[in-house]
Model the fold of this input.
Amino acid sequence: FPKEMDVIPGSLGWPVIGESFSFISEFSSPSGIFSFMNKRQQRYGKVFKSYVLGRYMVFTTGREASKVLLTGKDGMVSLNLFTTGQKVLGPNSLLQQNGEDHKRLRRLIAEPLSIDGLKKYFQFINDLAIEMFDQWDGQKVLVLEEASTFTLKVIGNMIMSLEPEGEEQEKFRDYFKIISSSFASLPFNIPGTAFYRGMKARDGMFEMLDTIIARRRNGSDMKQDFLGSLIKKHGKEGSEGKDDDEKLTDAQMKDNILTLLIAGHDTTTAALTWLVKFLGENHAALDQLREEHMEIRSKRKSGSNLTWSEVNNMPYTAKVVSETLRRATILPWYSRKAAMDFEIDGYRIKKGWSVNLDVVSIHHDPQVFADPHKFDPSRFDDPLRSFSFLGFGNGPRMCPGMNLAKLEISIFIHHLVCRYKWKPLEKDDSVQPTLVRMPKNKYPIIVESL
Ligand code: HEM
Done:
């Protein structure tokens, strides 16, 4: 134990394993990491230490701590990925950059994900949603599987114009699934392990990207997608030496495409699945939501379809999305590594320590969210104080994919509530023991036309 940690309250647990067992078992309980945090917060206060999964960690919570950790001045903290995550995403990933390098890379990557940048993908996403929901009529479906296929097709198309069906899509999906399940595995790179398979699949995915990039470069396949816009920037190389700032190497492009896939897929899939679950359990919210969408539909000329301007004007839907992210807290804690000494809630944090923000407690603070376990979108009627809601984070690392996620979710909701009612097939509130919180049973439902 680092000597300076002595003053921080908390327990180390058992030798070697520390508190890993209770951490893992409570992590996958229905209340998730909340019970692990809450017990210790009761005993030690807002800031406590632990030894979990081979790491000394400091946990903290509250609006003040989140302000310090998420927006702390440049270079104070860096993102804290597990070793496997670092290797799988690669050294050029946005998640591994800090300070100025991070800012520059983020600017290049976030631009195509702005609201304006997303407009050109609207039609594809809408058509894909309609096609998916056409298959749902009278069926039993696993919401999580459907949502996963949907979000992966969206991002594959957005990034590199992948067709939603066919050999390339399948190859892409297979590689992605293996990479994704290796992301939080143990870092043993020997044949037979999830990590080894993940690194092999990363090579495979990069070969696929190399082929697509080469096709674009020789001009045989010009497309207006994310990759296209990066290649155009990259293409500036050698043009009078200007615009150095706008250049990305192939390695940077590939690591960051993978980063967007990993950061965007499970999160959006989980959000869609929780949304269907919460709506099914809260009929008043579902009725109000359906009213908003039926009204949008009734104002439309018959035969025409959802439009870009309609999807950007769904006020109640926006609140339902926020409330879903609050209740589910898909990423239950945000992890940072201290890049220098600093103070938090009166405790000295030393350079190199892992400092973790417990977001579940922030999202269930009864002072801010009365009756916090209730699903109630009207909580978002009035603006909240900053740092009380962190569904997409805050500060320089706030989610750059948030507009895409909201767009996908709003289109999905529109078609779902206009066409169908549904019932869960199982009563089971367990969650998967993965980094991103999702219902363990993939949420099976039976669907019926309205
Ligand atoms: C509902 C879906 C989503 C949720 C709830 C979500 C949530 C978050 C949160 C909370 C963070 C900040 C984490 C931290 O501060 O440690 C984050 C970062 C990030 N998200 Fe999302 N996200 C979603 C969808 C997406 C999508 C669709 C993409 C990409 C297309 C994406 C890409 C990223 C990236 C690259 C980062 C890292 C940003 C940085 O370090 O600068 N996310 N997301």
The domain at 61-449 is CATH 1.10.630.10 (Cytochrome p450).
